[in-house]
Design brief:
The complex is a heterodimer of chains A (101) and B (167). Chain A is mostly helical and 101 residues long. Chain A has helices spanning 5-25, 29-54, 58-88. Helices cover 77% and strands 0% of the residues of chain A. The longest helix of chain A has 31 residues, at 58-88. With 167 residues, chain B is an all-alpha fold. Chain B is 71% helix and 0% strand. Chain B is built from 6 helices and no strands. The chains are: A mainly alpha (101), B mainly alpha (167). At the A-B interface, helix 1, helix 2 and helix 3 of A face helix 1, helix 2, helix 3, helix 4 and helix 5 of B.
Chain lengths: 101, 167
């Protein structure tokens, strides 16, 4: 069977599900951030395969922007985690409940 | 065909290493998760090459496996995260997470089944550096400049956040 568009989309969907599972079930802030990166990457894979399917490069330019924004997001998020760790000495989400009603 | 075999190799590698990032049965250390995330990124770069996105494959390896993972490892090194390994995952949280993920996967699979299957990827556009750069500096010039400002803002924000006395 020839590898077509839907093969890439299935891989992308499964990778997104893995990332979502990590964000929901893991309790370590750093690992949650890595799972977020997985979800962003699955969106990138879908955009690149659609770009190939539609025979233009606009999807790939969008992926370029997503990679840039993801890099900025990771830098800010990790700085926040470090600042939080300085105040609370923990990177575990169940210890960070001061905003919980 | 060789490219089909390569697709299956890279796809299985991506999903396997991605699963090991999220739930590794042998180790709950964040460093192993980070290393498996590097392997996921590299095998995904292989998929990008199969889709003729050569520039993005290189950028993926350089930016993610290079810059972002070094950031992650620095932060893991700064925070002493040995203590996390002892905690147990709560049963109820795990089950609700599984239900939510199953629902999302169901939506994806249903929408994929609703499309016409067997559509070949027969495009001829090649995402090399020259054509992507030409597009970035003509059609996408304004977003390109805005993204550069975004990077500057992120850099200033990170410096402010990591100052000693955070007000």
């Amino acid at each position: 069977m020839n590898v077509g568009l839907e093969h890439y989309l299935i891989v992308s969907a499964l990778l997104f599900a893995l990332g979502l599972l990590g964000v929901i079930t893991r309790r370590n802030l750093i690992v949650i951030y890595m799972s977020l990166e997985l979800m962003l990457n699955s969106a990138n894979l879908a955009l690149v395969s659609f770009s190939r399917f539609n025979d233009n490069l606009n999807g790939q330019v969008m992926v370029f922007f997503i990679i840039t924004v993801a890099a900025a997001e990771v830098a800010v998020g990790l700085a926040l985690i470090v600042a939080l760790y300085r105040k609370r000495q923990t990177a575990h989400v169940e210890d960070l409940t001061s905003m919980k009603y | 065909m060789a490219t089909d075999i390569l697709f299956y190799v890279f796809a299985i590698a991506t999903l396997l290493f991605g699963a090991l990032v999220v739930a590794n049965p042998f180790s709950r250390n964040p460093v192993t998760s980070a290393m498996f995330l590097v392997l996921t990124i590299v095998s995904m770069a292989g998929l990008f090459v199969l889709l003729h996105a050569f520039f993005l494959a290189a950028v993926q390896v350089v930016v993610y496996a290079g810059a972002v993972m070094v950031l992650f490892l620095f932060v893991i090194m700064l925070l002493d995260l040995k203590e996390e390994e002892r905690r147990k995952i709560k049963k109820t949280g795990f089950i609700t997470g599984l239900v939510a993920v199953a629902a999302i996967v169901g939506v994806f699979i249903r929408s994929l089944l609703a499309t016409r299957p067997g559509q070949d990827l027969t495009g001829t556009a090649v995402g090399d550096t020259a054509s992507l750069g030409r597009l970035l500096f003509t059609n996408y010039l304004l977003p390109f400049e805005i993204v550069s400002i975004l990077l500057l803002v992120a850099m200033v924000g990170v410096i402010l956040l990591s100052k000693k006395d955070l007000k």
